[in-house]
């Protein structure tokens, strides 16, 4: 039997048995590793090499930054300032979301970290201001990839 069939088949069987998805993925992977007869040391080394990535380290720290900004009240002050500057424009908070996303992604170089940090700050603020949640999420996700297209000079 091919490793692909073992992987997918065991995953689907475990899901059908109501095993949580995270455990089903892990167990299906272990079944496939055992079928292939791979040495566990090389599997462990490959797993560590895959997650030992400096750009991935930025994501939890940007999530922490967004949480600290929300809990510390910095978000409310920033939003009041932004409202005073572009509050008269229809959809001003959406404009702010796009500009902040461009700046964050340009500085960090990571669209995922940008989405996590800006989303943690601006999505709740946009929902509080009356924007629909799907629109706020879609705008944040779409604007976070702009940082890779435009490199702002700061």
TrEMBL record:
Record's bilayer topology term: Multi-pass membrane protein
Domain TRAP C4-dicarboxylate transport system permease DctM subunit stretches: 8-149
Chief location: membrane
Q: Which InterPro entries match?
A: DctM, TRAP_DctM
Function description: Part of the tripartite ATP-independent periplasmic (TRAP) transport system.
Q: Where in the cell is it found?
A: Cell inner membrane
The organism of origin for this protein: Vreelandella olivaria
**Residue ranges of the TM segments:** 48-70, 91-113, 133-152
- The molecule here is called TRAP C4-dicarboxylate transport system permease DctM subunit domain-containing protein
Q: What is the lineage of its organism?
A: Bacteria, Pseudomonadati, Pseudomonadota, Gammaproteobacteria, Oceanospirillales
Q: Name one Pfam family in it.
A: DctM
* Keywords, alphabetical: Cell inner membrane, Cell membrane, Membrane, Transmembrane, Transmembrane helix, Transport
Superkingdom assignment = Bacteria
